[in-house]
């Protein structure tokens, strides 16, 4: 038996003898014959190690805000813009900012100072009356993943390199989003435009309170030795690209956004100019509960007029991602572009599929398909020209991740990837994906190009299939149903899933979640606005709707089992190939869903849920129970008109469960 794991016999070579005498045999010991190094001290030696980055390509012509400016001037203006971002609104002008790591001794690492008096005519010249204006704020601007790794490992507890090269991090006390702590500024415009009140994710706050929290965040950030600044883009559609700036206190946050937003080229960064939207992430610092509207120590505040978001009291990085998504849910519909909480991929023939679904239903897992091009896993836009990804990266759930079931995601977890809240072996740094000690919501954030068949740029033609994913822990929805347009709209507005919360706490009962448009936490306008746009686009481009249950089969959670991922993949394959469109269908009771009688690679008996339940009576009761929950939920929408005529509204109302 070979002991080296290669299947080959072990070759045993005698070890080379150590020679301590030189060739001349003069008794002196030289360890190499190369010339001496060009450094007198270890610090000088280190300075040789780092070559300065090559200057970025000079631009020809007047291509952007900063084009045709000399390098120095351009960099100074960049810093000026960051100083303006960090300005206190009560003290008038921005802090003194300086580029580089405060810990770096070499003067080279600290470049270009910009502060209130420096060539900034608009800034009022005020006398220094507070200590914060006496210090410098060091700005770590668009650092590379390697630099961010070093920052995280040196300064942030819980940062480690895993055996595959990913950066393991901890998000602190919050390991998921805090939707109840979301606040949106209500002003004359947003009062009329946005969705407020029951069911809406937009909990009101006033402008003044926003400014109180903004000041709190800015003062906190300026009190630090250094802040991270990311200037990046959202949306791969060049006509509708949004420039975002993220100011944060942690390398973890900076690397997360580096991965999740679209990364600018050097030229694009030089011409970045003023951002369209800014996030102040002071997540380590709590909000003040004596502040009006604050009901906990966490607050994520959106101000659409100021184009700013403030984060206090949560370090969960998903707040930044989903905060920006909310902004897109406001900006894009204004331009007649539909924003979608969906994954998206494309076949070799250019057939595009959208995957809608609430958290954990399979958007990332199923859009990451080795046989198709990945356009994106979570946030998209559908315009008159087709689809575009909003993001530059993916955010995969990694609880129970396995190499053989999800090879592309597994392989994407390498150098550069942020791994949140996972547990790993102390010595080998192998990640134990099954371990829920920190949280069940363990996550990996990686740039989309880490998926080998990513479609770059992340855009595609109009979708052919619209797949609605539900993880039905009641186990009564069929693994797949073909939907007509009215049914697609009914299920899109309902946005159903039923996960089993806190599996370890002995909770046996699935709880239904209804979240309009499969993402009520992020939409800004009334759900019927998005639904009408989706209906119009699906009709115009002839897309087919499908409902896929990625949840339980053979009984509810506790008695049945989750549908095998391999079967769900075969179902999805049959949708993509078009073969499922031509299958034989039968109609189900209660939900009135069209279900196929057979699909290649899937046992036919599971296609009709009733067949898989031992206790038929329990099945019927559970089905009626779920039908009732759907009916109750939809009551809120019965008074709304969807689309231009009332025809569609009537059809949608009739497309729900019937009993
Ligand atoms: N039949 C199945 N179909 C899809 N996913 C399954 C199935 N069985 C188990 N899973 C698991 O369910 C999870 C689906 O999570 P996924 O990351 O795709 O969620 P998501 O819809 O992208 O949510 P989010 O919006 O929170 O990112 C994965 O961990 C996947 O391995
Ligand atoms: O936002 C998050 O934290 C994860 C996610 O994609 C979702 O919940 O839809
Ligand atoms: Ca996802
Ligand atoms: Mn999501």
TrEMBL record:
Keywords: ATP-binding, Cytoplasm, Decarboxylase, Gluconeogenesis, Lyase, Nucleotide-binding. Belongs to the phosphoenolpyruvate carboxykinase (ATP) family. One of its GO terms (cellular component) is cytosol. This is phosphoenolpyruvate carboxykinase (ATP). CDD domains: PEPCK_ATP (cd00484). Its EC number is 4.1.1.49. NCBIfam families: pckA (TIGR00224), PRK09344.1-2 (NF006820), PRK09344.1-3 (NF006821). It comes from Gossypium darwinii. One of its GO terms (molecular function) is phosphoenolpyruvate carboxykinase (ATP) activity. One of its GO terms (biological process) is gluconeogenesis. The keyword Nucleotide-binding applies.
